[in-house]
Each structure stands twice: as structure tokens, then as C-alpha cells.
Amino acid sequence: MRIHLVNPSDTSFGIGVITPRWLYVLAAATPAGYGDPFITDETLEQIQPELIQRGDIVGIGIHTGNALRGMQVGRMARERGAWVVYGGIHASLYPEEAHELGGAHAVVKGDGDVVWAKVIADLARGAAQRIYDGGRVSGEQFLPARWDLAPRARYMWASVQTVRGCPKHCSFCSVWRTDGQKPRQRASDVVIEEIVQSDTPRGAGGLMSWAVSKTAGPRGLGVARCAPYWVVQSCPAAPSAVSCWRMY
After folding, report:
1. Burial class of residue 236, CB neighbours in 10 A (0-12, 13-18, 19+)
2. Which of 36, 52, 59, 212 has its CA 20 to 30 A from that of 172?
3. How confident is the model at residue 179 (pLDDT cuts 50, 70, 90)?
4. Are 132 and 99 in contact (CB under 8 A)?
């Protein structure tokens, strides 16, 4: 059994703008006994179906923009005899779609940091639940990404997450619906350590750190001040929400 993590995309450009962080967080959440997961980011290159074997587990993260492609990948993986699991924003809001249209064995709603290991264990013994609720884990439970698995020099920007959730309720944004309106923030030291370990990361042109929360402003700026070459910008919809990135 091998674990596959897939970021679906209809179009592959060979290079990505920003790292799909969830891939490398779930890689960190994958128990070591299963080996390193096989990661496919279709914004870089299309998935190779022949790599998926009967009994493998294929985790697919979808937002609305790539949901149809993700479901296409899921149906293909199920036809090859793999276990198919969906997560992400779209799957959290519309879990039944993945079952009806994407060949899902299971859908994970909410955060995957903690529940992913249980999903794998259940599938390994052939006892999958239809829907898992990962909930909204605390900032202390956010996992640092496995940046050592990222392909070198394939992304323009790396990413480090500082907080989940936003007290705003903008009609155009899904964050407050999926991540809640109570911000859950990581400690600054943990964020800085991940930045250091990321190797910015592995040949990327810069590093972006998102803090999508009204209350994250002062602490987010504190992280941004850890080096003089960070640029700080606020979210237009929530001016005190801070994002910052390193320039070269």
C-alpha cells in the first residue's frame, strides 16, 4: 500500500506560482510506517495513472475551481482499485458530491492534521467511514509542512501558514465558513522554525506567510519583523489581517 496525495489541475505549466501547502502538511501527517507519500501537483505535471496500484490510498484536495478535475482523478483511481479520499474546501462544504460524482470511499471535512492518520488506518483494515470530521484543530496542533519532499526550483513562492480562521464574513470568501470565525494561531517561534527549515524552500524565489485573521495583525507583524527583507501587506477585506513575504 502506498499513499498518494494529488493536487488536481486541468492544466500543467511545469512551474507553480505558490506551493499547495496542504500536500506537504498531509505528508507530515502520514504515519512513517507507510513511507513517504507520492505527491502529485498537477499544476506542475499531470498524474501518472500507472503509478496507482490496487490497494493504494489516493488523497485528493479540491476547491471549487478544480473540483471537476479532482473528481475525474478520483474516478480513475477507484477504477484502478485504489481507496479514494477527498478533502479541502469544496469537499468540506459539499461532501456528498465527492461520493456521487468522484468515486469517493471517504470524505474528510475540516482540518486534516490530526484525522488523516486515522483515515489511513481505517482504510488499511478495510473499514472506511463515509465522512470524517477533522474539526478545527488548535494552533498548537498545526503540523509543519514536509518541505523536504517538495521538488526543487519548481515554485515561484513557498508558503508558511500562521493562522486559520477569520472573524470577518465576506460573501466572496470561504475561509470563515470552513475555518471558522475564531482565529487559531501558531506560536511565532514555530512559524520561524518552519521558515528556517523550509530552505525558502528548495530553490523557490520567495516565501509567503498568510495570516488571514483580523486579530493576527500584531503577532503577524512580529513574525514579519524577524528579518529586514520581509514585505508586509494587509488583506483588502480585513486591513488588520497580515500577509508577509520575503523578497530577493
Report:
1. exposed
2. 59
3. confident
4. no
pLDDT at residue 201 tops 60: no
Residues β-bridged to residue 131: 107
CB within 8 Å of 121: residues ≥ 6 apart: 31
Q: What's the rounded Cα separation, in Å, for the pair 107 and 130? A: 6
3-state secondary structure the chain: CCEEEEECCCCCCCCEEECCHHHHHHHHHCCHHHCCCEEEECCCCCCCHHHCCCCCEEEEECCHHHHHHHHHHHHHHHHCCCEEEEECHHHHHCHHHHHHHCCCCEEEECCCCCHHHHHHHHHHCCCCCCEEECCCCCHHHCCCCCHHHCCCCCEEEEEEEEEECCCCCCCCCCHHHHCCCCCEECCHHHHHHHHHHCCCCCCCCEEEEEECCHHHHHHHHHHHCCCCCEEEEEECCEEEEEEEEECC
CATH: 3.40.50.2300, 3.40.1620.10, 3.40.50.720, 3.20.20.20. Which one for 3-133?
A: 3.40.50.2300
What pLDDT does residue 192 have? 86
Q: What is the mean pLDDT of residues 86-91?
A: 95
C-alpha cell at 238: 480585513
Query: Residue ranges of the domains in the chain?
Result: 3-133, 145-246
- Cell 488506518 -> residue: 121
Q: Are strands 206-211 and 3-7 parallel, antiparallel or unpaired?
A: unpaired
Burial bucket for residue 32 (CB in 10 Å: 0-12, 13-18, 19+): exposed
